[in-house]
């Protein structure tokens, strides 16, 4: 089960939140969740994802699902899987990781290459 929470921010508050979330390489929503829930499943998996990507050899092609291997199928919440992909892509686009986008496959899954 998932619960959707809506909050209202002033323009200035959103500007601050956006700046901080961009620095962290996360979406604003995921940044708020990370701050409120230090040991969430997403945080654990996102840290694992970033560590495994860092350990890849230069030139390795991958997608988020392949980094986790069989463990990907044990992640029950679809929202967590989507958030992992969305936030990793944001991190790549921010330039805070040595990875570049490498097109999409026939299932529209974003592919990457380690630089």
What does this 3D model show about the protein?
The protein is mainly alpha-helical and 115 residues long. Helices cover 52% and strands 11% of the residues. It has five helices and three strands; from the N terminus they run αααβααββ. It has a three-stranded antiparallel sheet. α1 packs across α2. The model has no long low-confidence stretch (mean pLDDT 92).
Properties at a glance:
5 helices, 52% helix, three-stranded antiparallel β-sheet, 115 residues, mainly alpha
Could you write a compact summary of the structure shown?
The chain has 115 residues and is mainly α. It contains five helices and three strands.
Number of helices: 5
Briefly note the structural class of the backbone: mainly alpha
Identify low-pLDDT runs: none
* Strand neighbour order, sheet with most strands: 1-3-2
Mean pLDDT: 92
Main sheet properties? 3 strands, antiparallel
Strand proportion: 5-15%
Order of helices and strands: HHHEHHEE
**Tally of DSSP β-strands:** 3
Residues in helices, as a percent range: 40-55%
End-to-end distance, in Å?
A: 38 Å
Rg from alpha-carbon coordinates? 15 Å
Q: Note the overall shape.
A: globular
Question: How is the topology of this model organized?
Answer:
Layout lengths: L10 H14 L3 H9 L4 H15 L5 E2 L1 H5 L9 H17 L4 E6 L5 E5 L1
Antiparallel strand pairs: 1-3, 2-3
